[in-house]
Amino acid sequence: MFHRSERLLLRPPWPEDWSQVLGGIADEGVVRNLARAPWPYSAEDARQFVKLPVDPMYPRFLITRARDAALIGCIGIDLTEGEVELGYWIARPYWGQGYATEAGRAVLDVARMLGHERIVASHFLDNPASGRVLAKLGFEATGRVVKRHSCGRGEEAPCAEYEFDLVSMPGAVPQAA
Questions:
Q1: 150 vs 32: CA distance, rounded Å
Q2: Within a domain: residue 75?
Q3: Superkingdom of this entry's organism (predicted)?
Q4: What is the total count of domains within the chain?
């Protein structure tokens, strides 16, 4: 599955993408904010990641810049403990440029098209930038803070939980102010 937004092309990972994935994620500042990626992140981890099967109901995309195909990060939805969860990472050179919000908006549109009714997301408390992205997307904080394991940190850390109701928010995902 592919999806185009204003500046981005979201596309599936291909086996030949492993080195670009490695170049974007093999940064402790990126990996420590993820639950599932190990640290250190190796070439073999990247090779395995791009080979993972993708369930069409829970797509995973590489975030690429439409004008030059630069790999910016990864985003997708996954079934986690019975809930549809949004997850993403952005490579450090692209932080603070609105790419996470734009890609998130696009994936929420895809989730709506696939018939999902509710999406959850979370961020580690020491990563408030991710919380700002979720707020811009229209996610609402649940008020719950839970411990979640981070493979990159090698330990649990407090995580704020959010939710987005795709049914009560018909049409396009809200634009950032």
A1: 7
A2: yes
A3: Bacteria
A4: 1
Nearest Cα neighbor of 71 from 44, 91, 42 is 91
Cα–Cα distance measured from residue 77 to residue 80, given in angstroms and rounded to the nearest whole number: 9
pLDDT, averaged in runs of 10, over the chain (177 residues):
96 97 96 94 97 96 97 97 97 97 97 97 97 97 97 96 87 47
Query: What contacts 107, CB < 8 A, 6 or more positions away?
Result: 3, 10, 59, 61, 75, 76, 77, 86, 88
- pLDDT value at position 175? 47
The answer as to whether 10 is a domain residue is yes
77 touches 86 (CB < 8 A): yes
176 is a domain residue: no
DSSP string spanning 87-151? EEEE-GGGTTSSHHHHHHHHHHHHHHHTT--EEEEEEETT-HHHHHHHHHHT-EEEEEEEEEEET
Domain encompassing residue 82: 3-165
Q: Does 174 map to a domain?
A: no
Q: 39 in helix, strand or coil?
A: coil
Please give the model's pTM, rounded to 2 decimal places. 0.92
